[in-house]
Amino acid sequence: MSNIGGIDETELHLTPGVNVLVGRNATNRTSFLQSLMAVSGSERATLKGDSEEGRVEVELNGETFTRVLTRRGDDVDFSGDPILDDAEVADLFAFLLEDNEARRAVATQGDLRELVMRPVDTEAINDRIDELLAERERVDDEIEDAKAAGRRVPDLEERRVELEDEIEAKREALEAKQAEIDDADADVEESREERDDLEEALDELNERRAAVERIASRLENERSSLSSVRSEREDVEDALEGLEGVDEDRVAFLDEQVASLRDRKRDLDSTITQLQSLIQFNEEMLEGEHTEVLQLLADDEDESSAVTDALLAESESAAGRCWTCGSEVSMEDVEETLNKLRELAREKRKERSSVTSELEEVQSERNEIETRVERREDLEQRLEELGEEIETREDSVERLTAEREEASETVEELEGTVEELEAGRHSAVLDLHREANELQFELNDLQDDLEDVESEIAELEGEADRQADLEEKRESITEELEELRTRIDRLEAEAVESFNDHMETVLDVLDYGNVSRVWIERATEQVREGRRKVERTTFRLHVIRMGADGTAYEDTVEHLSESEREVIGLVFGLAGYLVHEVYEECPFMLLDSLEAIDSDRIAALVDYFREYAPYTAVALLPEDAQALDDDYRRVTEI
């Protein structure tokens, strides 16, 4: 790595398991951790102040990953080929440095549930649920069609049997009639050529009549379809007319509002975090913690003790020395300033809540507009398709009408020809031929009907056969829907269960005395979303202490020691690390700024964390590192 944080250039080797970065402050341990974050895909690393470009390269499991930081004015660009495509989850739950958001959420009373669910694209999940619901509805319609097809088959089978019986009877009648004609031909002397001409004319007449009926049937179907399409076009036009228009200026305004409100919320989050850290530090100073800071204000050990005593004096007007500038201050003034900071923090939290509500309302309106735009585009596209279909069907109706008229004229001509031929033949024979031709025509119609029925049966049986596949597809859709609907609940439940289980074990291992239990309760609360109130899940952190008389009572996070808050924040980060399975993609778990925890507990905590990450890197002071297992790799120079 080169030019990252305070590092000029260095190269280090890490081993699987725990790697302890040992050194005093300002020895580039945090810079090294930032380098690992950068090459993993994070943008929370800093470029060395006097450099225009920094670089990190890691060889891991036979692959090489790189990250380059380039200064662009006041900003820094990140490029290269990092380990992760998206480091958001790792930033939250694997890189547990001092300013880690999940780690600080406990001390700042942040939204624990929001942090756990932030990597989950709930909007995409809800969109997919809507898609699956629409698809399942379509499949349900197809299943119902398949069932209806199956119900129609028996009736058609019965109709097929009837047609087959009618055809057989008609064939027998035709054969009998043909026998009569043969007998009559034997008795009546007539021109063979004349008879052949008549039979040929009758055959052609029958064919032309059948053609006219087929054209008429097709024409009727086409007209019916044309009427249906025109009706649908009217419905689409009515829907378009009734659709509210979109004000482009309003859309642009809403986009600007969303961007502005998001920026404001981020600024408020940062300000609240800084204020809470500042308040926490000053409260701890007033309680007498951080004695090393107090000692710096004195010229010798006696004077340091005097300053400490002064700062811890019970009198609100007692004089002390400011731990920032070293000047003499009144404890009453310090408390007054601290109260102002607390009030400012409350105001900022209230403002953040207001900004969040406004952002949700603006986003809701923007989403409604987007839905209308998409609906209008769909309707306009469908209107265009319907217009093209209407033109096509109108052309078809016109063509079929002309064909029917032409075929009807041909039938009339053939009927005249048949009448002329019939006039010159013996009436009895002519009647027989006419009857035979009528039977043949009826037989042809019956055979056409049978073909139609058999074709419809085959089509319906094919449709009915799809029912099993459709029901299997519906079951698959339902399973995916159930999985999506429960995914958010499952992740929330897993996060709470993981935190509570690990917290119970860690408290037992670290033995924090009167802290008997720390746990998260998963509850629901009413919140405003746009113009309406909805139920939303929230994580409530509970602290149970044990009194001197052995009685358990609930306390608040504010009353925990800095060490206890740090441990809870780290365990919360570990819970998110496990729930989101960060270890599957990111090999590093990074720990820093553990000085608030005593050495033995740091050692126990590191031993506990090492089970869950391929590589654990922890930055420690020399005195804290001594308590860790000697088998852990030590890095003393960076």
TrEMBL record:
A GO MF term: ATP hydrolysis activity
UniProtKB keywords: Coiled coil
SUPFAM superfamilies, sorted: P-loop containing nucleoside triphosphate hydrolases
Stretches the record annotates as Disordered: 175-203, 346-370, 385-416
This protein's record includes keyword Coiled coil: yes
Domain of life: Archaea
GO BP terms in the entry: double-strand break repair
Ranges of compositional bias, category Basic and acidic residues: 393-407
Keyword Glycosyltransferase: no
Ranges of compositional bias, category Acidic residues: 181-203
PANTHER family membership: ABC TRANSPORTER ABCH.3
NCBIfam families membership: ASRP
Family: Belongs to the Sph1/Sph2 family.
Name of the protein described by the UniProt record: Chromosome segregation ATPase
Organism: Halarchaeum acidiphilum MH1-52-1
Source taxonomy: Archaea, Methanobacteriati, Methanobacteriota, Stenosarchaea group, Halobacteria
